Amino acid sequence: MSIDIAWARAELASFLKLTELYSPPGLFSASSRLSNRGGEREIVASAQVVEQILDRVLPRWRTEIPDDRNKRVNRWCQHREAVQRVDAALLRDAEVRERLGDDAPQLSAAAMHRWVWDGARSLWGSGHFREAVTAAARKVNAETQNKVARRDVSETALFQSVFSKDAAKPGQSRLRLMADDNSDTFRSVHRGAMSFAEGCFAGIRNPNSHEDGLPELPEHEALEQLAAFSVLARWVESATVDTA
To answer: Which residues form the Conserved hypothetical protein CHP02391 domain (predicted)?
Structure first.
């Protein structure tokens, strides 16, 4: 898990301490709500960090963990249960993977290229994985348009143009992943980038967006699709713009 576990657990422990419930001295009314140890401002500040840890380790905590006790008991009940679950996961993650015999590297959506994760984040957190991939694809397309200053083409046609081996023309900038030295490597790299981009949009983005009634993507499949767009995004961002 690509996270500083010691730091994360310390943040979670601090939040649990701040939100611990107790009965203030002198309040005996049966209708009185329990109070938190920490002040509201202090708790809110801690929650800003804690929520990011929860989103990383347990992305669907807002929908998977009931929030009904927030109104009946205390507004931080849902957060506290999520924190307790995540703390246990962080504590035992390495042990569980070792015991189960699977200590392979893990890929986090949050480690994807920022264009991809920025596009997918909100939908991913609510479990809308297919829509999250589509949103990430739109973001990569838009950022590519921005880089080459074009709005006349998009998606497959855009990448066919920007990765073309032909020289740039007025209004048709190219993206160069390496200098044009007239080598087979130059032609291979750009032909591959063009084909890869076409596969991302024709094979992933279009079916996700245009096919009605498709079942929700399993999370691991959606993660693989995000990874494809992350590779494309890194190529685009690192490329040099060649103009006529």
So the answer is: 112-236
Cα 221 to Cα 31: distance, rounded to the nearest angstrom: 49
CA distance 173 to 190: 14
Taking Cα atoms as reference points, which of 117, 97, 105, 103 lies closest to residue 222?
Answer: 117
Of the candidates 157, 154, 134, 160, which has an alpha carbon nearest to the alpha carbon of residue 229? 134
β-pair partners for 171: none
114 vs 176: CA distance, rounded Å? 21
Instruction: Give buried/exposed letters for 135-151 (b at 16+ CB in 10 A, else e).
Output: bbbbbbbebbbeebebe
Compute the distance between CA of residue 11 and CA of residue 22 in angstroms, rounded to an integer.
Answer: 21
In the chain, % of residues over pLDDT 90? 66
Q: pLDDT band for position 109 (50/70/90)?
A: confident
pTM (2 d.p.): 0.64
CA 123/CA 109 separation, integer angstroms: 12
Token look-up 């329990």 returns 34
And the tokens for 39? 């002040």
